[in-house]
Amino acid sequence: MRGKNYQVSVYRNGIRKTCTVETIEQALLIHHRLTIELEQAQQAVPLPHAQSHAVPHAQPHAVPHARSKGHSRAEAWTLATALERTIPLLWAGKGCERTAVINAKSAVAFFGPDTSLADIDLEWIDEYVDALLAQGNSGSTVNRKLSALSSMLRVAFERGKIEHLPKMPRRKEGEHRIRFLSVEEEARLLHYMRDVLGRADHADAVEVLLYTGVRCGELWRLETRDIDLERGTMTLWKTKNGRPRTIPIVARIRPIIERRMVCAKEGKIFPEGSHSWLRTVWDKARLDLGYAEDSQFVPHMLRHTCATRLAQRGISMPIIKEWMGHTTIQTTARYAHFSPTDLERAASLLGQE
User: Fold this and answer.
1) φ, ψ for residue 223, nearest 5 deg
2) pTM over 0.70
């Protein structure tokens, strides 16, 4: 990265070619093309040392690029091919698509788009992890990027393009404090948005997010046809894990849903809803209510609040998992310590004479 652009530099046998482009996607494509040009040129005609663009004493870029162990390009996939095939097979159309592709492109940028998948061994993956950590990535971020790489390798393995899957060196993820709204904070936030700022639509969105636990993107896509008032449920069709789920509409937000359905007719419940639409008003409320220094005071905490309150009321982890749409119970287990039921019973038994 140089300024706002990406500089591509390819070095082969004393010859370097460079190019500046605007996006990482262009950089990967240009890197691939320049690499092929240099390799083909050097295979066809020996280049004299007096070439004007020769750099005899220059060293290759510090980030490892494609290695070659004699694998035929016709027999093995490159990392760029694996990314191209994995996107439609695993990620396209899912809520995780954007993040997964970004994480996958991180691996492509490190290893090189023309790298044969068979060349990516555990030692090289360790180097990738070291590079990510040196860039300041947290353990959880490293794991997400390794997961994207693992997905690409698995797609290739299942199609017979590589013989084995290297084991990913997962990093330990730190335990973070879960930030959720207290009842008093909820009342202050809703009052400020609705009565002080006059942002009734934003207050409606916050209240629905809080009492459903849905992700913001899921709410923005919700339409009147997805709501069954007779059963008292809403169905979310496009979710992060790709599986639709149906959740109850609690009494607290039913009047909001009914009112907005009348206004929406056959359209979206929050037609203007978007990340920037909510965040602009949220950030003003955060500042004016004195939460400017609270880095966890973000819209996603509304989802944490819903899950936390379910746990505090003794709802089982499997039920919370289904309500929240978590892929694994391990994600839901973050809220387990909020459930006081078993501890309170144990304390009452311990105190008996």
Assistant:
1) -115, 165
2) no
